[in-house]
Amino acid sequence: MQVVIVESPAKAKTINKYLGPGYEVIASYGHVRDLPAKDGSVDPEHDFRMLWDVDPKAQKRLSDIARAVKAADGLILATDPDREGEAISWHVLEVLKEKRALKDQPIARVVFNAITKQAVTEAMKHPRMIDAALVDAYLARRALDYLVGFTLSPVLWRKLPGARSAGRVQSVALRLVCDREMEIETFVRREYWSIAATLATPRSETFEARLVGADGKKISRLDVGTAEEASAFRAALEAAKYSVRSVEAKPGKRHPYPPFTTSTLQQEASRKLGLAPATTMRIAQRLYEGVDIGGETVGLITYMRTDGVDMAPEAVAATRAVIGREYGDRYVPSVPRKYTAKAKNAQEAHEAVRPTDVGRRPKDVVRHLEPDQAKLYELIWLRTVASQMESAEIERTTVDIDANAGGRALELRATGSVVKFDGFLTLYREGRDDEEEDDENRRLPAMSAGEPLANRGIKADQHFTEPPPRYSEASLVKRMEELGIGRPSTYASVLAVLREREYVRLDKRRLVPEDKGRLVTAFLESFFDRYVEYDFTADLEEKLDRISAAELDWKDVLRDFWRDFSAAVGETKELRVSDVIAALDEMLTAHIFPPKEDGSDPRLCPTCGTGRLSLKVGKFGAFIGCSNYPECKYTRPLAVQNGENGEAETTGTRVLGTDPESGLEVTLRDGRFGTYLQLGEGKDGEKPKRSSLPKGLAPADVDLETALALLALPREIGHHPETGEPILAGIGKFGPYVQMGRTYANLDSGDDVLSIGLNRGVALIADKQNKGPGGRRGAPAGRELGEHPTLGGVISVRPGRFGAYVNHGKVNATLPKGTDPEAVTLDEAVKLIAAKAETSPARPARKSSTAKSATAKAPAKAKAAPKKASSAKAPAKKAAKG
Is CB count within 10 Å lower at the N or C end of the chain? Predict the structure, then answer.
């Protein structure tokens, strides 16, 4: 019997079917060991010795593996074909050695790029040893990440209260987001005008041409900068006579895109399907590990973590056959297309992400897949097939036009292009469909040199330059890849960490840095600039790749890094927090104190009128405070940020107007718990009246009238028709509610706290009273995932007060932050249930507070008889009751 080790149970089940009797396939459930989260796990003083702890969740699985290996004839390590997969095999082997489970059994390492019967059986014919260079690269990467995180993070905690962590790749990705935000904030809009004429041929066919030259000088996009200039050009063109100077038609081609790599898959799935990178990788993992297709579990795509763009020759041949059969021989190139990319590491340059069988069309498998799985498979299939199709043939036409206006020589140009043969475009276009340009279908009428043209109208349109857009998750991944920062397997986790740490947030699918993220980046740029430089991080990635190619010694790389890094950390020990805050205050001036429209000093305190505003740090993080504290207690969040169009957004303080009754200023502000309204500033130690915004009300939609109505809450909506008690509507800690006496009922999503009427209020109160004091008729049933594979009983995913969770019997396991409850699978739920059961032993009977109190009053007795401490509590409890 041969024992085969893979990562996941789904993979194990599929491969077990392929291999048949004589093999036992066991899942490790991913990594089985890690560096413990404590100081000293990587010890630079002892040649970077690394201390590994077995994951408590993996203890039983490793014992099962060891037991199986002891009775086996051989061990085959078949984890994923990348650096992480190599590391998992190495960890499993090291644990088995420690458990003395290995005697003289042969050990082999096999890899397969796809989980199909052919790929698995072929891989078994070509075993090898564990690649030591890949393991070294893993060890170096893990040690570097640990040393940066566990060395920098404590510095952040001491010098920058409210900061949570720093990371080698994470902090550089955060800097990208913050640098882009700084570009947006400091962007100065520039006015420009576009001048275009609608012209007609002698056959009355119209088209549009734009002004590109005047008096022998070229006119580019931004050259016409004022309304006066635009008006002068428009007047000249109105009086001009037009003729065709030249017509040039050039044939051109558009070539198909290569098949997907990890990063391009994440980018296209984000643009076309709206999927986050982490979601894309989770779905792709399922497609790779296998899906039940007509009673047979089949891996539908090749391995999804890759930098490679090449495909196996047999896959290329199969793709060309599908193209000929489905679209005709005209769409099949005479020579198969060959794509190459500069591989980060020759040993990790796997095939591109492609279907394992391109003959398995999306429509053939859609009924067997979940909706998102079907969409992602179709995207991969289309891209793969299009990559081997014929190029599109396009004819691009350029017409140059002379306009003579009273001695002024003006030049216009019209462009158009026509798709002569659609080629791969018949199947696939990159980007979202609603964003595709239609230039290829903009035809120009037939014209010839010297032909006169008639003026059908001149238009001059005003425009303003726009700042660069914020990064989406897809565009950030693309930028990181361009800079050589991180690797395909890290992108999704890096983005997830930035959001979990609340360093960035997603707003309209764009990444916006939070204030704490801006502070962390400013701190690192001020005191650890080298370690968040793009070139430095990319150079380190290249060294890690060279380690995996056996070109560098991994400990030499660590020594070089640690020598300079530890010295830089040592220099910060003498830094005072006040010095750090002063440096950040200066560095973030444009963000914290943007110029005011009236030109007044943005640092002048609006409350006392004499104090200077500056950056302060408290136990809950950073804020802006007045220099006249404690006499003046004015504070506000960090900044009013700019949107992508340069307009101010409501992320700091926005004045809405004045309350006509009190004369106090009504402002919209950002706080620790979200956006809120405030009336005045409060005096003599009294807090000003405040109100949070109801869910669904965007800050940009709040006007003075709405603000005053919210600040006036709670409001009486009427009296109960039976009891006569008043019913109030207001906003509390848990959102909008209606109240009668001591009964509170939350409003549903369709209810508006400002307009809800008496009838609806009575119904909500009655429903709440019928449910009883707990407010629940029982836990929601949720979505059933299936039977537990070993223990039996239904597993379901349910909504909860503190987030969604999976349930099995009496065990409830909260879903990890960011996990979509609708995407949770049975396998994932089983893992969560098992982990929860292992870490949550049965709770002891709860002891009353009076018992603790009584015990505490008799320390001498408890000390004299420690073995009877528990029994001594009983009479104490009885005495307390009496």
Answer: C
Residue 639 has what pLDDT? 54
Helices (H) and strands (E) in the chain, counts: 25, 35
Residue 442's alpha-carbon distances to 152, 244, 447, 457, in angstroms, are 56, 19, 15, 20
Quick one: average pLDDT of 120-128?
90
Q: What is the CATH number of the domain that holds 359?
A: 1.10.290.10
The pLDDT value recorded for residue 869 is 38
Could you tell me if residue 622 is inside a domain?
A: no
Domain boundary among 578, 605, 628: 578
Beta strands, E only, 202-290: 206-214, 217-218, 241-254
CA separation for the pair 107, 240 (Å, rounded) = 85
Side chain identity, residue 834 = A
**Cα–Cα distance, 532 to 535 (Å, whole number):** 9
Looking at the predicted structure, is the pLDDT value of residue 283 above 50? Answer: yes
Q: Which residues contact 163 (CB under 8 A, 6 or more apart)?
A: 156, 157, 516, 519, 520, 523
What is the pLDDT averaged over residues 177-182? 92
Residue 601 lies in a domain: no
Beta strands in 604-732 (DSSP E): 613-618, 621-626, 635-636, 653-658, 665-671, 674-679, 689-692, 715-719, 726-732
> Are residue 495 and residue 564 in the same domain, yes or no?
yes
149 Rama sector, left if φ>0, alpha if ψ -120 to 50, beta otherwise: alpha
- Assess whether pLDDT exceeds 90 at residue 228: yes
- pLDDT tens for each residue of 514-548: 888 888 888 888 888 888 888 888 888 889 889 98
Look at 31-45, 465-479, 680-694 and tell me which has the smallest mean pLDDT.
Answer: 680-694
More confident residue, 347 or 683: 683
777-808 pLDDT, tens digit each: 444 556 778 788 877 778 888 877 667 888 88
Angle between helices 277-289 and 371-387 (to 10 degrees): 80
Strand partners, 844: none
Q: At 351, is the secondary structure helix, strand, or coil? A: coil
Report the b/e string of 61-89 with b at 16+ CB within 10 A. Answer: bbeebbebbeebeebbbbbbbbbbbbbbb
Strands 794-798 and 805-808: antiparallel
**Amino acid identity, position 856:** A
765, 794: one domain = no
pLDDT at 789: 80
| Cα dist from 131 to 86, 648, 705, whole Å | 7, 54, 69
In a domain, 747, yes or no: yes
Report residue 841's pLDDT band, with 50, 70 and 90 as the boundaries: low
pLDDT band at residue 293 using 50, 70 and 90 as cut-offs: confident
Residue with tokens 């790599």: 261
Neighbours of 317 (CB within 10 A): 13
Cis amide prior to 630 (ω within 30 degrees): yes
Residue 842 CA: distances (Å) to CA of 570, 629, 728, 845, 852: 46, 52, 44, 9, 21
pTM, rounded to two decimals: 0.67
- Tell whether 54 is covered by a domain: yes
Q: Which are the catalytic amino acids?
A: 303
SS3 content of the chain, % helix, strand, coil (to 5): 40, 25, 35
- C-beta of residue 370 within 8 angstroms of C-beta of residue 822: no
Are residues 427 and 519 located together in one domain of the fold?
A: no
